[in-house]
Amino acid sequence: MLDHVAIQVSDIASSAAFYDAVLGPLGGARKKQFGENISFGVTGHPFWLVPATDATPSRELHVAFVAGDRASVDAFYAAALATGAEGLHAPRLWPEYHESYYGAFVRDPDGNNVEAVCHLP
């Protein structure tokens, strides 16, 4: 249903470096730059970073990225911690979601809750 999502970030360079690191293990990479706006994706450009337009704090956002396997979730988490990101939940099964839900959660530079999830057994 979604074509793309854009999130406002306070420091485009810092956020782009974070997403370079954590999306790489998931097969994601920078796809397009339009002015200061930067997109990421595996194909196309579904996830955009755009500079915040004012100093008003934003509400926490949760975004989950698809991982092809559990090892990719583990690599996502390790890459996030290597950038200095706060780990929210280490990789594990979340059976309350469904029996094969394997995910990890971290904070991005703007405090958003970013997840990698694999739905495969």
Automatic annotation (TrEMBL):
Lineage top rank: taxon: Bacteria
InterPro entries: Glyas_Bleomycin-R_OHBP_Dase (IPR029068), Glyas_Fos-R_dOase_dom (IPR004360), VOC_core (IPR037523)
Xref: PROSITE patterns: VOC
Coiled coil: none
Pfam families per UniProt: Glyoxalase (PF00903)
Domain VOC: 1-119
CDD domains listed in its UniProt record: VOC_like
PANTHER family: GLYOXALASE FAMILY PROTEIN (AFU_ORTHOLOGUE AFUA_5G14830)
Protein name, entry field: VOC family protein
